[in-house]
Design brief:
1 helix, about 10% helix, six-stranded antiparallel beta sheet, binds magnesium ion, Jelly Rolls, mainly beta
């Protein structure tokens, strides 16, 4: 009896901490300066996978993917003409397989007829480790930032709400763009405390935008990020963002565990 009361108190305390972490407004962690300088990338081409890569999407089907909110359900995004397009009502999708440290290549395209502004213009996201339903995980932001103003730690190439990209090498909507990522997953002690934070290096259209960046924790929309949840290897997740702009597409996704 005493023990259950104790755990009830512990639960109440941890819930109030969780609520406290959500205090404040989304804008509290959105920054507008310094603005990453524009860089025109060299020719951006589709990078064929090396011989030891695991192919996550080759243009044919979504056999390696499931729906995040119910991982027993197949992914419902649209596959046609060698590309997959976000199905916003179908929710986020993630790989069946889990990964720890890796090299990842992803190609994405904002449609030429994109509308909207700020975060409501071609928003998607590449979650480098999916550690729960919805948007839980570590998001490398995908957005049309060719000529679209938003907070700098929310633009394409940012570690969302943590680190702005070093520069802005966005191509205009309608063009295919590449992310090449080196991910070092966080490690945790037995008791759940952090042993070493996640680190990420990102090339966006062949241009360095994150250089061995040390993440503060999983992505948090409101409040300060921190490592609050011990986890091991995790799936890669793609975001079906709820804004009204036209859905973006992906192709040629491969990974090399490292
Ligand atoms: Mg996003």
């Amino acid at each position: 009896m005493k023990k259950s009361l104790c755990s009830l108190v512990a639960l109440a305390v941890s819930m109030s901490i969780a609520v406290a972490q959500q205090n404040g407004k989304p804008e509290d962690t959105e920054f507008y300066t310094p603005v990453p300088p524009k860089v025109t990338p060299g020719p951006v081409t589709s990078t064929k996978p090396p011989s030891d890569a695991i192919i996550l999407f080759d243009g044919k089907n979504l056999d390696n993917w499931v729906t995040t909110d119910d991982t027993t359900k197949p992914a419902t995004w649209n596959v046609s003409g060698g590309i997959m397009t976000v199905n916003k009502s179908g929710g986020n999708i993630q790989t069946k397989q889990s990964f720890q440290d890796y090299q990842l290549h992803v190609e994405w395209r904002v449609p030429k007829n994109i509308t909207g502004s700020g975060q409501a213009r071609g928003n998607s996201g590449l979650f480098l480790a999916s550690i729960g339903k919805g948007d839980e995980g570590y998001e490398l932001q995908i957005l049309d930032n060719y000529e679209n103003k938003t907070y700098v730690n929310g633009q394409a190439g940012s570690i969302y709400k943590q680190f702005a990209p070093l520069v802005n090498p966005n191509l205009p909507a309608g063009e295919w763009q590449n992310y090449d990522v080196a991910w070092k997953a966080p490690r945790f002690n037995e008791d759940g405390s952090l042993l070493s934070p996640a680190r990420v290096t990102v090339y966006f259209n062949g241009v360095l935008v994150q250089n061995n960046t040390e993440l503060k924790g999983p992505t948090q929309y409101i409040g300060q990020p921190a490592y609050r949840k011990k986890h091991g290897p995790a799936p890669i997740k793609l975001q079906a963002h709820g804004d009204k702009s036209e859905p973006i597409s992906f192709r040629n996704i491969w990974i090399r565990p490292a």
